[in-house]
Design goal:
This protein is mainly beta. Helix content is 0%, strand content 51%. It is built from no helices and eleven strands. It has strands spanning 4-7, 10-13, 18-24, 34-39, 46-51, 57-59, 67-72, 77-82, 91-97, 100-101, 105-110. The strands form two sheets. Strands 2, 4, 5, 6, 9, 10 and 11 form a seven-stranded mixed beta sheet that branches. A four-stranded antiparallel beta sheet has the order 1-3-8-7, with no helix packed on it. The model has no long low-confidence stretch (mean pLDDT 95).
């Protein structure tokens, strides 16, 4: 039973953009805060951005002004618009909510 499914990753040159999507099971979406996390090679998983049930949004300092989190309740989908990508953004990006995790989507940024 699939709970969270990410998509939208890929390879892009520095300065480019990507938009990630996370489709959530209906009983998850809206039940908990949701967030985007990433794990770069050799590093621990870290929070990129999250949105709480009351709509409070936070961003990691490294992505402020470049990434935008949003959601579409009609589609049970969480998004992450990523602009001005740089090589340090290279990682597997995961969607997390209600203690569930997606399988991740790989983002590779080349110089």
């Amino acid at each position: 039973q699939v709970q969270l499914v990410e998509s939208g990753g890929g390879s892009v040159q520095a300065g480019g953009s990507l938009k990630l999507s996370c489709e959530a099971s209906r009983y998850i979406f809206g039940s908990c805060g949701m967030g985007w996390y990433r794990q770069a090679p050799g590093k621990e998983r870290e929070l990129v951005s999250s949105i709480s049930k009351d709509g409070t949004i936070i961003y990691d300092d490294s992505v402020k002004g470049r990434f935008t989190i949003s959601q579409d309740s009609a589609k049970n989908t969480l998004y992450l618009q990523m602009n001005s990508l740089n090589t340090e953004d290279t990682a597997v990006y995961y969607c997390g909510a209600c203690k569930f995790w997606g399988r991740g989507t790989l983002v590779t940024v080349s110089s």
